[in-house]
Amino acid sequence: MHHPSRLRTYALPTAATLGTGVLLGLLGPLAAKSDHPVFAALSLTFSVGWSWAAYAFLVGCFCRTKTLSALLASVGLATGVTVYYVFKALSPAVLPGATDVTVVSISPGILFWSVAALVLGAPMGLAGHFARRPDLLALPFRLAVPAIAYYEATMRFEVETDPGDTVGIVTWTVVRIASAAVALALVGRAGWSLLRPSGGSQRA
Predict the structure, then answer these.
(1) Residue 58 belongs to what H/E stretch?
(2) 47: Cβ–Cβ under 8 A, 6 or more apart, which residues?
(3) Using one digit for the tens of pLDDT, what is the confidence trace for 34-57?
């Protein structure tokens, strides 16, 4: 007979992680099938590193142990990578104006990014786990995803966009503004918790 706490600690997080990993792997290539600007922006967002880092971070946030946070973050990312490349190979997006569908090879990308997922997923999962701490030591971990998002969006804005790339310009600008706002809110919240009086009970 399975103990309920074991089910909550291991089985449910594992199922949720694998399920959301599959969803993450599908979002980018599915959105790329439409040339609507909103779907193009979604495809950009869910096909780059920071959104995958955020996924691993959230996995760690919801896991009760450090070991499970590291393990499930890596496995979930590897699952997402596999789904992403297999789906792109089986159902490649056709660019506007194209007449032929180019067969996509999954081997190089899936091998490289699966290894990257296994290596980088664990640190992000642990960051999410340690971000649950109730003290100020959690702040650096909570700032990890906004920092990654801001840095990557800035690099992509400067390197990959041109004056005519409206979707790219808008997407990376929104990501930069949102990540900066989240970081400021986290720092402000931490500062407020440090400055406000202790919440200890006082007896009359």
Answers:
(1) helix 49-62
(2) 28, 29, 32, 84
(3) 889 999 999 999 999 999 999 999
